[in-house]
Design brief:
Number of strands: 7
Strand content: over 45%
């Protein structure tokens, strides 16, 4: 949710919708965090998400456009950190 700094009114509201899962799907533990950045150093707005899957922490950055676009994914686990850039 993006609030107006002047009057506190809601300027923008983003939801993450559930979708139908296939019969066999991975299990994600929902210890999670979301953060919205209005303007990163590159001047663009991003949504950051982090969640735990098995024993690894997954960290994802989405560019906030009409349709969310994944910027990068990091995995932090016992073997160190791994980055995937789409």
């Amino acid at each position: 949710m993006l609030l107006s700094r002047d009057d506190g009114l809601i300027n923008k509201f983003i939801t993450i919708e559930d979708f139908e899962q296939p019969a066999i799907a991975y299990t994600y533990i929902t210890y999670q965090a979301l953060y919205y950045s209005e303007s990163d150093p590159d001047g663009l707005p991003y949504i950051y998400a982090a969640y735990l899957m098995e024993s690894d922490i997954h960290f994802i950055r989405f560019e906030n456009k009409e349709e969310l676009e994944m910027g990068y994914v990091y995995f932090f686990g016992d073997g160190g950190a791994t980055a995937y850039l789409p």
